[in-house]
Fold these 4 entries.
Entry 1:
Amino acid sequence: MEEQYRLFKNDLNKFLEILRKSYPKIIGPSLDSEEKEIFKEITNVNELKLDRTIPLKPPKEFLFPQSEELFKFSFKERKFDLKDENFFEKQVLFALRPCDLTAIKYTDTFFTSNFIDVYYSAKRENSLIIGIACEYPSNKCFCTSMGVSPVSSKGSDIFLTNGGTFFLVEFLTEKALSMREQFAGLLKEASLEDATLKNRIEKRTRSLLLEEFDLGKVGEGIERIYEKEELFRKYSDTCVMCGACTFDCPTCTCFDVSDKFLDKDSGKRYRTWDSCSFYNFSLHASGYNPRSRKVERLRQRIMHKFNYTVKQFNLWSCVGCGRCIAVCPVGINIKSIAKDLQREASNENK
Amino acid sequence: MAREGLTYLFLCRIDKRKKLIEKIRNKYPHIKIVDVICSGRFNPAYAFKLLNSGANGVIVLGCDPADCQYREGNLVAERRLFLAKKTLSCFGLDAERFQVIWHKVNEVNPVLSEISRFMNEINIINEKEGSMEKK
Amino acid sequence: MIVEIEENVKKLLKKLFKENDIIISYRNSGIPEITTPFIIRSKNEIDYISIDNFCVNNLSVYLSKFQQSEIRMPVNKGRVIVTAKPCDTKSIIQMISDEQIDKDKLILVVYECDGIIDTKRLKRVTGELRQISVSDDEVNFTKLSGEDGKISLHTVLRDKCLEGSCDVPYFFDYYFVGNEKRFKERIKKRSRPHQLPVQNLKNKAELKRIVEEELSKCIRCNACRNICPACFCSERCIFDKPKLPVGFIEKEVNLSENLLYHLIRFYHVFPNCTGCGECERVCPQGIKLSLFYKYINEILVKEFGFSAGSTDSVRQPLLSYRLGEDLV
């Protein structure tokens, strides 16, 4: 049962201290030395910056790191030995916006639906997710067009909403409710007018978005769009296939597994992020590559985001955070691609 | 980190340098000798990879300018290896660990004395690094 | 000022365009402060071209043989028409010198731009934007919230434009001159004193610390390699070889492998590097890659009198030798 409380901003420091007792590592939005927004470990409440746009690097690196050791192996004296030394610290992901919360719901589905990825689940079970309603979108955000509301609390354990001098706090899951007693002294009663706070913020944030569009019909016509290469060529011509969009996307989860020998008879196996934009991604051992051209790789990426995951899990795997637009070296705008698809799909349906 | 790796010596015309190689193997057993057919074949990326993995030092021994069996191999290598040294110092690495020496094919003692000078320099660098770490 | 240049360039392109030609230019992306490259194959698309103070991309990256084989039809008899700024033309001339572009099939249309805005610097001052326009020396913008604002252009230009490195290129087919008196005034007002590279200023330990700090940020996304016009090995790149028994470089992301990656890439690229600064601009982590390129370009000028991109008849120094030169 959701219950709402007020947490006054002066008490935020004490709130974090109490959290830290159960979850030693608190990760939240902050600034680096160049005044750029990033997610990093917060040791002091003054490092938290909640009034800026979304950090460019997504929080997926705390659940699915760029480079991760899977296990160590050795062949000493004709005996084969495996050692799994992974130790996962308890951590809090603080102040994630609804787009990132939806992305975590997608990665949860991806890593646990057909086969449970132990490395991801161990980190995920040891993480507490605290969300926050979004008030500072960028001009590249389009979450509402992907069915994500800027005040949606789905996917978080605790959800905060800014009410000026206080945060409206909601405890949503079992994990959160079991901790509620520890904050007893800090949580004050919410007043009746707080019920409208979220609606007011949603209205304001929606008015700040640069544009909104409706992707309703895309699913139906998208199969036939597959053959229309000119639609995708417009964008793949200028794409340089660098992979930066996939590295900064909160839902991209492809990885590559490699072995490294540390000495003659022992070593480790590790995994690193991979990208479907790279030429080698679909290279077969025979030397044949089914996606050797740029347009084929771009088409695959777009179809995956807007079609294949819908068929597989009934989820869009684009959440409308706009990071791919911000980081693209040549300014490819996924909003334009989505709108083109929508236009083409509604023509097809006629 | 303390450099306990090997030193690598890349040289050309190994068939004519047999006496030199014997003497090096006797005096410095921890120098690994690698045959490249010509100093122009040496790709500086090998030196980068070796030095990055913890090698002690890398020496390239090539022929005198007029002496190359393939006519121009060592001439194109000159600029290439010079700029490789500058690249190392550009990234803050020890360019002194990468040395290039040019000698005629039948010279033995001048080469040995240069190699021993290089090994002494490397020892000094290693000691300095070791003492800095202890601080 | 620059509006007239855009109109004149479009008029010229409409006159020049023939069937099978390709035009490489710029257009608006849908985001107010981003102007993206645009590849045109038919005459009616020329109207969508947009030339303004946000045209930051170096279009010469699309002229290498690999990119051309991806963009053009397999048997294409047409020409390639490129609209370039004077600083980008240096990269094109260097690629011609390295025989990566067929000079006969290329038509180079150069225009004097008014300076390019650095969007990171802009965002720090204005915040998120709904609309932006530039006229003469003034930038008028509207924030997402609806507030209007105004700032002066030279406070948000990129460092490269402030250093006044706009030289008239060595060759071109068409050249659109801006207002000459204003151009010279702008160059004078903006000139910064020549800065020595960091390697000459800091001691070894300090330099090592700076390099380690910068390169530990690297996530090996390969954006710097793919956007670089001088990196034309493309699909035969040494870092893309399938994993050999003893690979050249591990896929693991840590300081040692990142250092090796940058060392090798730098060594392969620097004789052709014209200092366009694209690598530093596109890095998602904001690594200061120009630290390394500035130092070694100075050495090339000092030792060999060679400056990449200044002429297409002199080959870069590593492709030749001089007898009696005793460097190492």
Note: Chain A touches chain C through 47 residues (CB under 8 Å).
Entry 2:
Amino acid sequence: MMRPSQFGVTAGIAGGGLSRRQLLAALGGAGVAIGLSSCEVVTDPDADRASPSPSRRYNIPDSGAKLPTGKVTFRWMDSGDLKALFEVPLFRAYEQKHPNITVDYQDSPWDRINEVVPLGVRNGTAPDVFAKPNNVPVQVMINEGWVAPIDDIIPDFETWKSRFPDNAFIPGVHIFNDRTYTWPVTSSKRYAHMLMYDREYLEDAGYDPESEPLSWDDFRAAAKKVTQQGDGDYYGLMLNGQGLAGVVGALAQVAGARGAGGPWIDWKTGEYAYTAPQVKQAFELLLAMKSDGSIFPGFLSLGDADARARMPQRVAAMIFDGPWDIPEWPTINPDYDFGVAMPPSPTAGTWAPANYQETGSNQVFVYAKSKYKSIAGDLFSYMGSLEGQTNIVIASGGNLGSQWPEANDRARRTDVLTDRSKAAWDIAERLMRMAPMVEVRSSEVVKVILELKPVTPTLADIAQGIMSGQLDDIDRALQDLKDRSEKNLDDAVAAARAKGADVSRDLWVFPNWDPTKDYTPDMYADLA
Amino acid sequence: MAATDLARVGRGGSEQISGSGRGPGSGTTWRRIVSSRWCYAFMLPSLLLGGMFTFYPMVMSWYFSFFNWSGFTAEMSFVGLDNYRELVRDPLFWDAFGRSFLFVIVAVPIRLVLSLLVAILLNNQALKLAPVFRTFFFLPVVTTAAIVGIVMTFVLSPFHGPVNQALTGLGLVPEPVDFLGDPDTALWAVMGVEIWKSFGITMIYWLAALQTVPRIYYEAAKVDGAGRFQLLRHITIPVLLPFAAIIILLTANSTLHVFAIVQAMTRGGPYFSTQVIEVYIYQTAFAADQVGGVPRLGYASAAGCFFGVVVMLIALLQVFAARKAAQVRSQLVSG
């Protein structure tokens, strides 16, 4: 899962309790306990009734991989978070099944992954399986010989791969030069800007967003009223300086801005979407709320983890955030009663779709010089099975989804998923539609990505400037960002072409894209 | 720099005078090396470590600055001076550059004057609790900058932060001040925290310097009827001058390296208002994933080298000033 960086220490200080990482360690520990107790209290996803029943949770079959017979330590590094809840018990169960194998699981913050993996590759000590460092394109890892294809590693690869939905494996994302290097461990279909709110504060103010979705006007009025109720002890809306652009994108998207959020490209025209009128309207809404005094003071200097950790301390009534808060907040404050609702839209009860790209998430790669690739293949084989995928969803409390509809259905039939997790799932289903991916259209696009220079100031910077009052001409700032972004992409395309890539800006245009529908393989075929 | 180093600087003038003769190891260079072999042997670990972790990275930064390179590919394209050309046209670089020097221009004099005053007070042997106060002032220096930064975000917070509670409680401000979220106050707030955090090390430098002032000067001046201010004006300050030059250099240097505290408190925001040069370099070299695109280690190296040259020029000016001050001191000592 690609998540903004976490600072457990700040969460700990803010909450005066567990940090996010401590929480996950604790939950992971609980997962280990459950995993090790094996045949005890677990859920049978096949049961029709929603109740726990005895079943082996991590029933790892023999995949046929030729595993080492001597004592070995297999190293796995990723960002932990929700997937650790699945991986930790899986690895302990795997060690039980193969006593000669120790899995050294390094659940690490992204900063550490970004440093350790490139250094490890250079000196030959990289973990056997690792998450991609954020700032290294996959193509670079492949060109530089960092990672090995998984086609030869996972036993009976073609059968294994065929069980995934169509288009789950994407050229330019998972497949390079006809070899598969990674796979979608979980789905990227998770809505990251749900309205999560303090039930008591909103009820006191006369609002119930779960049953009566808020319009933008309601949202502003609710925040103002809650702030008045709070009288300096709590506020209407929690924002943070790092996440402003995401909130603006989400608000603009549900208001109908095509392509807002994500890569910020309107796939209909292939141009950047920063100047869509809804983007400015979203900024104006937030500025109005700021002038009302409804936003948590000091939000511009807050990080996303700080902002998130303060919600269970009940210092603000509403925040836009994703399902990862659902298991975390009750551990910070068990009495915290929060709701999970659709984001506010200009007209209550109607939302334009939010588009996402189904690249999968939580991908990991196998180190090219690993001596124990067969262990990676064995583990991947299980993780990419129906049981493995179902268990990922169950272990995360439904806060991670699978690309396999059947795995999601099986998990949903259990009573492990909370109402909030189910609500988050429903919101994602209701709002999110798959957008086209230029990488699917042409794997040559990767060469353009390698030529892209960072565009600064970014939308995140500009959002800070607008909210802090440093930028007062929103139209001009957004137009400037669009112009710079267009030129940057044009330059990257030109540079890639100069190096022989068969690319043009036309690849970014999908005339048959309908934002209200999933973009299907047939639609790619129609373009040809 | 240790107190002994400072003392050496202070003695610079007299060493130049007495060191004109040739020592016992005179002769060929080789004979001198052989006769001083143990000195070189003891220097070797330091030379090796310095070479590996200071000089090699420095040289490689210059090398990388001539390439378009992301930092993780084998392929590097030579671009000559293109990175430097782009840099001098980058307004964000110059803004960050300006902020770093504003930091120095404001924070260094405040640190120097405050720490000198405290050092003079604590140098008074009649003050029984001097070691306690010295420790008290030095504690922030040894506290991790990132921790100080995070704690200070809570201290300065407009939501129930103690500073704002004090200000509003005393009626000094009508409503809490968003020190770190307001672009007009953010840089000053970070500066204040940096001055507080690093104040102790400058104080220690001054204390070391003060302890080199021969007591007989004070005693003789007192016999001649000099008061406290005259002692300060005619003895302490002239004797401290050569130290002052080097302390200014060290303080300015440390004030240019405030990455950790800025990153922990504001990450350069809001909207670049606290983006000093080190944060700019970091964000260009390593945080490109957060702004889209591929990291630009070559370009960031160019920014680092350019900045390094400017700092070096300032340092050279200060070394020149230190020598001049040392000459003044030696004249004072011999006079």
Note: Chain B has one domain: 83-334.
Entry 3:
Amino acid sequence: MKERGTTVLLFLTPNLVGFLLFTIGPIFFSILLSFFAWDLFSSPTFVGLDNFTDLLGLEFSTGSGVIFTSLIVGGVAFISACALKGKPAVRVAWGSCVAAFAVAFTAVAVYGIPTSPKFWQSIGNTLFLLIGLPVGMLGSLFLAVLLNEKIFAGRFFRLTFFLPSIVGGVGIFLLWKWIFNPYYGPLNTALQVTLGITGPAWFEASAWAKPAMLIMNFWSQIGGGNMILYLAALQSINPSLYEAAQVDGANALKRFFHITLPMVSPTSAFILIMGIINGFQGGFDAAYVITGGGPAGSTTTVNYFIFESAFKHFEMGRASAASVILFVIVLGISWINWKFFASRNY
Amino acid sequence: MISFHQASLKSFLVVTSFRLAFALGFIAPSLLLLTGCPQRDNSALVLLCPSGKVTDTITPALKQFQSENPTLKVRLISCPPKDYYTKALSLFAARQRVDVVWLGQGFGMFASRGTLLPLNKLMEEEAGNGKKATARNAFIDSALSLYTYSDQLYGLPYGLDLEVLAINEDLFHQADIPIPDDLWTYEDFLNIARSIAGQTALSKHRIFALGMSEIPPGFIGLSLVSQDGNHFSFTGAKALNWLQTNIDLRASGALLPTATEGQFDRLEEFLSNRIAIMRIFTWEIRDLKERAKFQWRLLPQPKNTDNSQYAWASSSGFSIVKNSPDPEKAWKLLKCLIAPEMQVRFSETSVPALKSLWEQYADNLDERERAIIHILPTIVPEPRIRTAEKVASEWRYWQDKAMEGQMTPEQALEIASRRIDQILQKP
């Protein structure tokens, strides 16, 4: 048995060495670096939590009085509520406590100016781009259901819808850049010709840049790998379930909602979790190729922010701190997802 | 009939040949991996420069240099121009060997990080030997000052990159606006921009009055950072007025939309008759001359009310990297790259940095390009700072916020001022 263990370890060693050197090592180095200021040229300087407070901190030019007073009132109300255990006034004390903390929280949200607004904006942008995920999932499922039926040129359509996964990113982004060009792009030309309206400036206006990115993401998310996963899930559903439902008089819609949807839900959970993780880690290539993160930071995702901090401003500590924050966010969301889906039976 | 022995021999041969082929398939790449590719010649000098025109111009010169110095080998690393400076800095940070590097306006990012070798001593030695071509006074002062940081000279220029304004005279005629002369003022410039933007006949064809996403602050003598590089200097009524003017011009359609990286090719749009007045740099003039199918001319920057005039400029040249293992050979290469014959070759993209070549260059300019001559005395060097990229990016962010109407110009200036000061004062 011992010999077997040694053999297993020997076989695993090359992979483990690579994993330690190129995955675990950089992760720990990055966590360590987040407590330092380092520009690659001079020696790193220990700065404690400065990188984190700089990224996540808030400053208050006004409203600090309101926050301070509310916190004091909330604290006093909390202590009173604890002390008045069992007495009728306890409800009033708890009410005051909740109200005071709500006021403090609102004041922080209203008066707080982030010390690094670009970072907060990048988180907001990343979250915004995640809106596309459920729509992409629905679209993928719809296509998979269609392609699962025996339709004319089914194989051709399968290949066509899988194309976004095969075609290289930069080429696609350049193509979309041309499509969204406000002056000679086909989209605005079509809008002008068919509806008689002047299309928006898309990537050149902060109000339209994110929706443009979203449209672009739909294209790659609908179809592609997700569609193939759904197709595989659909083909593994036992046909007798549909036959039984048909005998019971269930129409196509009922069969979809009561059989198809629950049976593909493990695949949906997988796609959702992976989509969220990829969504938080994505957005760099499109921002780099198309917009450079602009205009006014409207297409800067967390990943692009990290790249900019590290390789444009040479602030390795700050970039590492942003990576650690991103890691915590992704870990937290994955944990919630896991808890949520683990408690459900399929 | 095949006997048993024959059959087993045949199968033995087949199996063995398969085994051999299989083993060779593994052994050959493994041996290759173990031995590695042929080692790179470490004695060769490494020259880093942007691909495109610079590489095209220096390649024949390098060949000549190597034929004249057969013992000196030079390896050229040609780097894509997008994000050239950050790519070059990353190479330095990774301790990759680079001996001589091409630098333009991003010079400050390198000098302030201590990555370049000061040339003062080498220059003095040259002067002592009576070499005129590399003597300080052989260069146009402003060209040399653009390679100076903390009183040390860190590079030698082969040319000056200047900014002028190009006007499409056909569009001026269409808009019925008289063509301005070299003495035009800032007010004239704004009025022309507004008039062209107001012309509905032109706007139907999406014609922009100005080929710029904002009026360069330098036009009114403003700079983002003070000359000492210690604080944000883009403040006060003048800056506020500048920002408001830009917002108004954007609203009237005179300016280009926010310039997202690579979104808008100004020169192509100008050449397609879609821009009336455009900022043009010396490296773009050749394209303009060869491809424009309309009447055009160059103008200097407009004069301010106090008659002052400011022009943006940058040097193009080469520096020696501090970690170069062979600075003497690198110096030899650098001198070759900025030699008079090279400056003449580069004169299609920049103004020669040597005084002796200036007259010849000016004589070769045609009537439409004469504005370049007027620019030289008005050059104001930009402060060379370590955080140039971050300051520019921070400013762009808050300026865009104001231009997009997401905050007032006052708020944008106030926040930008505070944040850029923090960046500049960080040790």
Note: The radius of gyration of chain A is 26 Å.
Entry 4:
Amino acid sequence: MDIPFNVKERPDTGLYNGKLGIWFFLASEVMLFGGLFSAYIFLRNGVDDWPAGTDYLDVPLATLNTLFLISSSVTMVMSWASLKLNDFKKYKLYTLITLLFAIGFLVIKYFEYSAKFAHNPPYLPSTNNFLGIYFTMTGLHVLHIIGGILVIGYFYGPGSKMWNSEPERFTNRIEIVGLYWHFVDLVWIFLFPVLYLL
Amino acid sequence: MSEGHHKQSFWTKYIWSTDHKVIGIQYGITSLIWLLFGFALMAIMRYQLAFPGSPVPIVGNLLGEGGILPSEMYNSLGAMHGTIMIFLGVVPLAFGAFGNYLVPLQIGAIDMAFPKLNAASYWTYFLGSVIMVTGFFVPGGAANSGWTSYPPLANTATMGQTVWLFGMIMLITSSLLGSVNILVTVIQLRTDGMTWMKLPIFVWTQFITAFLLLLAFPPLEAAGVLQLMDRLVNTSFFMPSGLVVSGEVLQNAGGGSPLLWQHLFWFLAHPEVYVLILPAFGIVTEVIANNTRKPIKGYKSLVYAMIFLGFMSFVVWAHHMYLTGMGTTIGAFFQTTTMIISIPSVVILTALLLSLWGGSIRFNTPMLFALGFLPMFGIGGLTGLPLGLAAADIHLHDTYYVIGHFHYVVAPGTIFALFAGIYYWFPKITGKRTNETLGKLHFFSSFLCMNGVFMPMFVTGLAGVSRRLWDGGESYAHAAGVFQLNELMSISAWLLGIAQLFFIVNMIISLRSKKTGEANPWNATTIDWTDTTSPPLGHGNFEKVPTVYNGPYEYSVPGLKKDFLPQSEKG
């Protein structure tokens, strides 16, 4: 016996189960990052001298990373749209580009982090609360990126077999991953100005 | 039913199951064991409080030199009692067990929306609870900074605090998976005709609880991550500048704020109070409607009151923080919201009380527990009002009065409701009946002992005895007049423990008895009783998924031969 509305939409809500589920999950993610952003405001308001982001951080690299993530969001939508248009080859291509952008983001982040640690004296989370909250928030964000890469990678590789057996369900899955991926981007869109520019 | 044809092994059927009923039972058994364990921790503490400095009998040699409970361990037991009772006991029982088992049955769904996530939720909870308790075996013992883990104390505490944080992050993940599942299930899987205003109140309460868990827990997760950073990589999020511990200035950057933790923590922990109480409202409503044989008074006002309650619970958190010097303007705001949130609670309690009016009440075990819930929750709620006003809170803050207040809400309140639920749905889950005599003995003895434990706390609290004292106030002059009440409280607590034997024996005897074969022994109206067998079918729940025509509480409908009209019967 199959659970209803797993693939097809329920008429009165207009949603299938997974889509509603990911929206609720994202709502809770909003509260998670919301809690951290509130902590940032609270800490910054509590002290007289809060460093400017440019004192420690590399704005050009982060701008490049912002471009990477926005582009990956676009290709993510394109891969879903390709499935909707029944073009599996294009889906594969766009997903591959998405993955490359995401991995590119991580590589740049790696260089950013190691530059901080290699600095003399080293910039560590314990140096001050600005760097502390910078490492905590971007670190948590990086974990989300890694999670996204694993899932998108799965649907690029072994998970894509479902396209042959249950194309509609597979398309739904890509839509759900896409929603998650856009959210991860959105978090960065907030992190970038708050940490680097303000 | 494809699953019915081949035999499942014990492991796939009962351990790695994705069936919401099995997961509900797993949650139920695990959380009951933790409740007993958490109770045992308190029973040890109460010996020290009643007879300070004398060796604890039976378990004494596990504790320390001469069998006397050391003060550090007293702190551990206190912190872990709170944590275990709330996060490992009551919430998993009320939400994980009852919610999982009953919500799909009551809305006519064949399972939860995401069965695998459901199993993942249970196993994450199980793992988190085990991690939590391993804290007792690390150097320095389990977390000992109170269940609230306030920094800077918690930041500089022994390793047990790190274990606590890891355990908590697992538990938060588990409740996230569980709440998404309940929300999607209620929204998407209601059967034909089950409109929102035909939902049993129990489903409504689980639905609102799921929202609270979904949105209130993540800020604590954020706080937990920040505290882990403070503890593991020496950041200063919660550490003010120039803090001196044991005569030495701490080596860290400083500039942080202990208040930040309190805000993030109570942003979770106040909605958490309603997570504890809402499922109890739901269970009590079902039991009262069924045993008064008449419709609930004010179904819609109950629903709206609960939604309002859920919403308001997000804007009252700082009433736990009046003594932090946050200023009168903010204080006035939180006092106002706190007074407002008492209104829906009163609406709910009044609706339930009025529902008794003119009913021909059946005084069976579940009904007794439900009736016991009403005045006990009433006492708990009303004693909370002085705490919600800053002026009174200055005197009462952190005293035994607070302990008495929230235990009246949760122990004889929520836990009585949970017992009502266990006795009420036992025939559904097992197809067997519980023993009424043992059940009534269980109720009356528990009722008496609960009040013996918690009523004197109001007295000692008003006298100003702090909740954190290892010697129960023996060495404090202001506690001299009320100190001897500790003995009464402790003896009541131990008797309360013994009274639970009635419950345990009842469960064992009833489980070994023969099946009665009745699907609907209480003549209830909701579809969990009318359209499934007892116990329900293994997979798929219903032989034929029912269609719903009526509201949930159509009892004693005039002109009908029987005194109840099932939701799935055309009236």
Note: The two ends of chain A are 55 Å apart (CA to CA).
